[in-house]
Amino acid sequence: DGSTITLLDDVVDSYGVDISDDRELILDMAGHTITYGAQVEGYTVIFDLSGNVKLTIQGNGSFTFNDDYLNDKDPIGYIFRLGGNSTITINDGEYLCGLTCIQLDSNSKATINGGKFSAYGTWGDRYWILNLIDGCDGIFEVKGGTFVNYDPSNSETENPTDNIVAEGYEAIS
Fold first, then answer.
1. In contact, 145 and 155? CB cutoff 8 Å
2. Contact 120/148 with Cβ under 8 angstroms?
3. What percent of the chain has pLDDT over 90?
4. Nearest Cα to 143, choosing from 130, 152, 156?
């Protein structure tokens, strides 16, 4: 059973969080907001997960960024970047990223049960809200949620275009 972290107030984070060990965490947003400020040049990720980390997000909170992030040299960062065998489960909340809400590498996995996902910017005139690093064995399972300007059943972030909606589920425009 994992540890639960419950936010008691809104948070402004300028450095990001790197979790790289074998632990199971539940982040209960409790309706609060994490705002990313990107004070560290070139570090454009809020949560960097690797190893065997298992993170669950719940509690109807939100992730966003402020003007410091937009003024950074590379304001097209990530909310969650996963590597190794790390996993994330998102149950609800709102996620506004620079470019990518969740990026998977290695054998990582993301399960999305709900939430609203949108991006500030595009790359090649496409929204990259969910993205697998080319050649990795990462897995997306989209079971719910709302995606602004992005269709997980026709993910143009993958080459070739891929359907990352979980088996037994369907995307509705």
1. no
2. no
3. 67
4. 152
The two structure tokens encoding residue 88: 């994330």
What is residue 43's predicted lDDT score, i.e. its pLDDT?
Answer: 63
Q: Which of the pair, 1 or 89, is modelled with greater confidence?
A: 89
Q: Describe the strand order of the beta sheet including 116-119 as a list of residue ranges.
A: 11-13, 33-36, 62-65, 94-97, 116-119, 146-147
C-alpha–C-alpha distance, residues 29 and 44, integer Å: 21
18: which residues sit within 8 A by CB, 6+ positions away?
Answer: 48, 50
Q: Measuring CA to CA, which residue among 159, 167, 86, 92 is closest to residue 128?
A: 159
Q: Which of 11-20, 49-58, 161-170 has the lowest mean pLDDT?
A: 11-20
Q: What tokens does 100 get?
A: 């990518």
> Dihedral angle at the C-alpha atoms of 138, 121, 13, 80, nearest 10 degrees?
-10
- Which pLDDT does position 46 carry in this prediction? 85
| Stated pTM of the model | 0.93
Grouping H, G, I as helix, E, B as strand and the rest as coil, residue 61 is coil
Q: Give the Cα separation of 146 and 105 in Å (integer).
A: 23
Q: How far apart are CA 165 and CA 155, in angstroms?
A: 9
Helix, strand, coil shares, percent, the chain, to 5:
5, 40, 55
Give the distance from CA 43 to its chain's centroid. Answer: 15
